[in-house]
Every structure is written in C-alpha cells, then in structure tokens.
Design a protein that fits this description.
With 451 residues, this protein is of the alpha/beta class. Helix content is 43%, strand content 14%. It has a seven-stranded mixed β-sheet with strand order 2-8-7-6-5-3-4, sandwiched between helices. Bound molecules: pyridoxal-5'-phosphate (PLP). Pyridoxal-5'-phosphate binds next to helix 7.
Length: 451
C-alpha cells in the first residue's frame, strides 16, 4: 500500500500544479479517446512503469471540475477537509447497513441528520438517511408518499391512478422516478411558474381541483428549493398549506439550494419548508463535499421504516433498528457518504457552512451586477439565485458555450426558461473570488470578439 500512497501523492501534486497552470483542458475527441490514452485492459498486467504512466495521463487528461474556471454544473471546487474525510472513508471501506460493520460511523451519520433536522426546524422525532444522489432522495420521498397514500401498494401493488404535482421547472428525476415507482410519467402534473421560475400556487390549486373533479387521486406535491436552471425557490409556506388542505405528502427538493438551512441570512428563502413531510439536500452542491453526499430528512421516522425496512436474518443480527441504518435505506451495501461532510462540518462549524452559503450568494450578486451594468448583456435572472442567466451580444448561447469548451477556455453550460435559451453561470464554488468572476467575463468577452 505504501508505494501506491506515494504514487497517489505524486499524481495529486501534478494535478494541483496542472489545475493552476491550465484550469480548463481542450477535450479529447471521443473518437480518438482510445488511441490518445492507454485505456486498454489485457490478459497480462502492465509493468509498474507503464501502469504509472497510463494512470497519470488518464488523471491529467480528465476534465478539471475543481478549477477556478469550472462553472458548468451545480458543483465545483475542492474542499480540503471534506476530501480528507472522503479519502479516509475509502480507506476504512465500511458499509453503512449495520452497527456491527459501521461502528461509530453510524453516529457520524446520525449526528449530521439530527443537526440538519434541527436547523430545518423539524421536531425531535425526525430522522433521515443518505442516498446516492438527489435523484434518489427524491425517489425515496416519492415512495414514502405512495406508501402512505396506498397502504397496500407495498404488498399488492398500486390500485387506481395516483397523481402528483411539481413545477415545470423541477428536476427531471421526478418523471423518471414516477416511472420507476409504477405511477407512470403521465401522472406528474407540471404546474406553471411565475416570471422568476417559482411555482404559481394558484395554478397548483386549480390543477388539484381539476384532477379531483375528474376522479383522480392526488397524493403528493414537490416544491423545489433552487430550480436547476433559474435557481428559483418555490413558496414553501403556501405549498405546505395547500398540501395540508388536500392531504398531500409535501416534499422539498433542496438538492441544489436546500443548504440555505445553514445561513441566517438566506434561510428565509425556504420559510415553510419545516412544515414539509420530507426535505432533501445535496452537500455535494453548495457545501462543496466530493460527490455524492445527499441527505433526506423525514418529519416522522415511521414512514422511513414503513417503506424501506425489510427483515433479513442474515444481515441484522445485533444492535437494534436505530443503529442498523440498513433498515431505512434504499440500498443494501452502502458507502460512507457521511464522513466527508462530518470532517467539513466539524472543522468549520454550522457557522462556517453558513458563511460558505452566504459567499455563494455574494458572488452571484456580484456577477448579476456585472451583467446588468453592461449593455452588451441581456439578463434573465433575479437576485437570490446562484444561477446567473444571460446572453452576450447576439451570440447564440449553445454556440458560445460549446466553442468555449472545444477551445479549452471555460467550462460553462446553457439553459432554457420559457422561450429563451441563455448562458448559465453558476457561483456554487465557495472557494472562488470576485477576481474569478471578473476573469470569467473577460475570457468570455475576449473569446466572443474572436468568434
Ligand atoms: C441536482 C439536482 C437533483 C439531482 O441530484 P443528483 O445528486 O445529481 O442526483 C435533483 N433536484 C434538483 C433541483 C437538482 O438541482
């Protein structure tokens, strides 16, 4: 192991230097991938020298998501304390299903879940778990909602048509999950959004009424805390009231921006989320832990057990349900996604996490001010969103973003809202500074001048 750790250290050092010198790589043409890099696997193993060379080249040719010029998705940067936790989790290689094999890591997971529930404003009997991504935490919420609406769904299968509500700006995992869970994609109703991209609650009420009149069975509504493109926040308090009135399970998809629970300043954006039946957020987005670190909190832990507990004599042999986390998870063997979040939280405290959140909103406001002040930009965003959406001059967003990628200048993506397509700058890397935002615009403008 020692030699491989030395090799790790040496490749990591090369990577850090490379990220500074060349934050964005020109992509390898996928047609030439196998000729440019040694990815081949064969009958006999390679000698150490070839192995090290192939591995280093592979790492150094992989897109640099931790660099200062990566704005392409809703994650980025590299938090050192979180990375340390992740590396140790890999070294320990526990599985989180039982206390017998996970030991104190069970406590690490529970501490994170309980402190998160407290910050959200959930009662003491709340609980939760970790799942492999925000799509899967949404899936878990949808399954609990289904099982609550139809107690026999787990044993007999579904009866009748269940229908659910979410905004047209919500995440694509929702229709996918609807297919997985047997209610069908067509039973997802996409409620209209207002001009900022937040759910129009009057349209929600209307749609529920129409469904009830048509004899359908509404069972769930999902509000989004940070829509994927516009970064908008649905009005959680109003959705909670409608959910209560219509006996719907209310889930908050906070995969992107649910981490505002850590910020005194921005928590108000999700006011009312504490009334939801379940709430999910991704620490690998705003809080900068390595992928993936996704949590779901459930107001009443009974529903977690109802939907996910299954007896298994060969597995659960000691310590009781509260410490055998497999009783409430989607998976069987489950990696330790909690430790990387714990090392980060332990070192900076809830206050430090709140400062990371605040910092991202400050950077977003800085970028928004810039595009609003410069007449060459058309702006589509509003304050309090981490996605700054704009077009530059009359250049099509897709052409601009794709050329910037092809030429190895910037990693930036485009999005769509209503009939507009635009560049979407995401300020989700709390390690970035105002200078990095300035540099972003300067690269983009210089590049556009040459286009
Ligand atoms: C990113 C995102 C998801 C999906 O999370 P993954 O961890 O990528 O599966 C779900 N909902 C919203 C609003 C998101 O932004």
């Amino acid at each position: 192991m020692k030699n491989d750790l030395d090799l790790f250290r040496s490749i990591a050092d090369s990577l850090f230097q490379a990220e500074e010198k060349e934050p964005v790589l020109k992509p390898i043409d996928p047609k030439k991938l196998f000729s440019e890099l040694d990815l081949s696997l064969s009958e006999s193993g390679s000698n150490e020298e070839d192995f090290e060379k192939a591995l280093s080249e592979l790492v150094l040719n992989t897109p640099r998501t931790a660099s200062r010029k990566f704005f392409n998705q809703l994650f980025g940067g590299r938090n050192s304390k979180a990375t340390l936790g992740e590396l140790l989790a890999v070294l320990l290689n526990n599985s989180m299903y039982t206390y017998k094999v996970a030991g104190p890591m069970v406590g690490v997971e529970k501490e994170i879940l309980h402190r998160s529930a407290e910050l959200l404003g959930y009662p003491a009997q709340a609980d939760g778990t970790f799942a492999p991504g925000g799509s899967m935490t949404n899936f878990m919420a949808m399954l609990m909602a289904r099982d609550k609406a139809q107690e026999k769904a787990r044993t007999e299968g579904l009866s009748g048509k269940l229908c659910m509500y979410t905004s047209k700006e919500s995440h694509y995992s929702i229709p996918k999950n609807a297919a997985f869970m047997g209610i069908g994609r067509n039973q997802v109703r996409y409620v209209a959004s207002d001009e900022k991209g937040a759910m129009d609650v009057n349209a929600l009420t209307e749609t529920i009424k129409e469904d009830k009149a048509a004899g359908h069975h509404p069972f769930m509504v999902i509000g989004t805390a940070g829509t994927t493109v516009m970064g908008a926040f649905d009005p959680m308090g109003e959705i909670a009231a409608i959910a209560e009135e219509n006996d719907l399970w209310f889930h908050v998809d906070g995969a992107y921006c649910g981490s505002v629970i850590f910020s005194e300043k921005y928590k108000h954006l999700i006011a009312g989320a504490e009334l939801a039946d379940s709430f999910s957020y991704n620490a690998h987005k705003m809080l900068g832990t390595p992928l993936s670190c996704s949590l779901i909190l459930v107001r009443e832990k009974k529903y977690l057990y109802d939907s996910f507990a299954n007896d298994a004599d060969y597995l659960y042999q000691t310590d009781g349900d509260d410490y055998n986390l497999g009783k409430t998870s989607l998976q069987c063997g489950r990696r330790n996604d909690a430790l990387k979040f714990w090392t980060l939280w332990k070192s900076v405290g809830s206050k430090g996490l709140g400062e990371m959140v605040d910092r991202q909103f400050e950077l977003a406001q800085y970028a928004l001010d810039y595009v609003e002040k410069h007449p060459d930009y058309t702006v589509y965003s509003y304050p309090n969103s981490l996605g700054i959406c704009f077009n530059y001059k009359d250049i099509a967003a897709d052409a601009l973003c794709n050329s910037l990628y092809d030429q190895g200048e910037l990693m930036i993506g485009f999005g769509k809202f209503n009939d507009d397509e635009f560049v979407r700058l995401v300020t989700v890397n709390a390690g970035n500074t105002e200078e990095d935002i300035d540099a972003f615009f300067s690269v983009l403008e210089n590049f556009a001048a040459k286009m």
